[in-house]
C-alpha cells in the first residue's frame, strides 16, 4: 500500500507540474500568436488580393506573384538585397573581429577607444544616413573635397548617382554603423575564454595565429553565429539607410526588397502586391534562419 500511495503522490505532483508549465506558457503563446502569427497570416491573405489604398481588396489568387515573377525590378531587388546583406555582414564581421582583438589587449586609454568605437551604433539611423548623404555629395561633400585636395582624383565622384558604385557606397554606410555591434559582441566572447587555454597553448609552442585558430575562433564561435544571424536579419530589413541615401536609385541600382515594398505600397498604392514582395522572399529568409539556428545549436 505504501508503494502505491507513493506512486499516486508522484503522479499527482507530475500532473500538477505539467499543468503549471502549460499555465505559464499560455501568455507567451498568446503573445507570439497575437504579435507575430496574426499579422503574418493577415499579410499572406492580403498578398492574394488586389488591395489598394482606400479601396477594398478582392481575391485574385496568385496574380500578384505571377506579376512579380515577370517583373525585372523584383529580381533586381532580390539580388541587391542578397548582395547588400551578405557583403555588409561579412565586412562587419571581419572588421568587428579585428577591432575586438585589439580592444581585448591592454591599450592605453582603452575606455575612451571603446566609447569612440561605439558612437556609430549610438547615432540614430536617420541622422547617420543624412550625414553620409552630405559626405557623399558630389557638389560639397567632404569625401570628394579631401580626395581632390590629396590629388587622388581630379573631379568629384558621384558616389550615390553612379550605377557602378552606388550599391557599394550604401553598403559602406551600413558597415560603418554596424561594426560596433560585432566589435562588442565578439569582445564579450573573447573575454569569456579561459586565459589558461592561451597559457597552455603557449607552453606547447603555439604561435599567435595558431592560438587564434585553435583557441580564439572556437571559443567565440557560438556568439559569432548568433551575432551573424541577428545582423543578417537587421541588414536584410534595413530600409532607412538605403531610402534616405538613394531612394533605391539611380534606376534600380540600390533597390532592395524593403524599398521595393515601399514603392509598391506608397507610390503605386498597390498594397496587395507590396505585401506579396515580402511574402515571396520569406521562405528563403526562414530557411537561412533555420540553418544558422541549427549551426548555433550544434555549436552549443
Automatic annotation (TrEMBL):
Keywords: Cell membrane, Membrane, Transmembrane, Transmembrane helix, Transport. It is a multi-pass membrane protein. Signal peptide: none annotated. The keyword Cell cycle does not apply. Pfam families: BPD_transp_1. The keyword Transport applies. The chain crosses the membrane at residues 20-45, 82-103, 115-136, 156-176, 215-236, 242-262, 274-296. Residues 78-296 form the ABC transmembrane type-1 domain. It is found in: Cell membrane. InterPro entries: MetI-like, MetI-like_sf. PANTHER family: BLR7065 PROTEIN, SPERMIDINE_PUTRESCINE TRANSPORT SYSTEM PERMEASE PROTEIN. Belongs to the binding-protein-dependent transport system permease family. This is Sugar ABC transporter permease.
Amino acid at each position: 500500500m505504501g508503494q502505491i500511495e507513493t506512486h499516486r503522490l508522484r503522479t499527482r505532483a507530475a500532473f500538477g507540474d505539467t499543468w503549471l508549465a502549460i499555465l505559464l506558457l499560455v501568455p507567451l503563446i498568446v503573445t507570439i500568436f497575437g504579435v507575430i502569427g496574426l499579422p503574418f497570416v493577415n499579410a499572406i491573405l492580403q498578398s492574394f488580393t488586389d488591395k489598394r489604398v482606400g479601396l477594398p481588396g478582392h481575391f485574385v489568387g496568385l496574380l500578384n506573384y505571377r506579376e512579380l515573377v515577370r517583373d525585372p525590378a523584383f529580381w533586381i531587388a532580390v539580388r541587391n538585397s542578397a548582395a547588400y546583406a551578405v557583403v555588409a555582414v561579412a565586412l562587419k564581421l571581419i572588421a568587428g573581429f579585428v577591432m575586438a582583438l585589439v580592444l581585448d589587449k591592454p591599450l592605453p586609454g582603452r575606455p575612451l577607444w571603446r566609447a569612440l568605437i561605439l558612437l556609430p551604433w549610438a547615432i540614430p539611423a536617420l541622422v547617420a544616413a543624412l550625414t553620409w548623404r552630405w559626405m557623399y555629395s558630389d557638389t560639397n561633400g567632404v569625401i570628394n573635397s579631401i580626395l581632390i585636395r590629396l590629388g587622388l582624383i581630379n573631379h568629384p565622384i558621384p558616389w550615390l548617382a553612379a550605377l557602378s558604385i552606388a550599391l557599394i557606397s550604401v553598403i559602406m554606410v551600413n558597415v560603418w554603423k554596424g561594426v560596433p555591434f560585432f566589435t562588442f559582441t565578439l569582445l564579450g566572447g573573447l573575454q569569456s575564454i579561459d586565459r589558461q587555454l592561451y597559457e597552455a597553448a603557449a607552453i606547447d609552442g603555439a604561435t599567435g595565429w595558431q592560438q587564434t585558430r585553435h583557441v580564439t575562433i572556437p571559443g567565440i564561435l557560438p556568439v559569432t553565429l548568433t551575432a551573424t544571424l541577428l545582423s543578417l536579419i537587421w541588414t536584410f530589413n534595413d530600409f532607412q539607410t538605403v531610402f534616405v541615401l538613394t531612394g533605391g536609385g539611380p534606376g534600380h541600382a540600390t533597390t532592395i526588397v524593403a524599398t521595393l515594398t515601399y514603392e509598391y505600397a506608397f507610390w503605386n498604392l498597390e498594397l496587395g502586391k507590396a505585401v506579396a514582395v515580402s511574402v515571396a522572399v520569406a521562405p528563403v529568409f526562414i530557411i537561412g534562419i533555420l540553418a544558422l539556428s541549427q549551426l548555433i545549436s550544434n555549436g552549443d
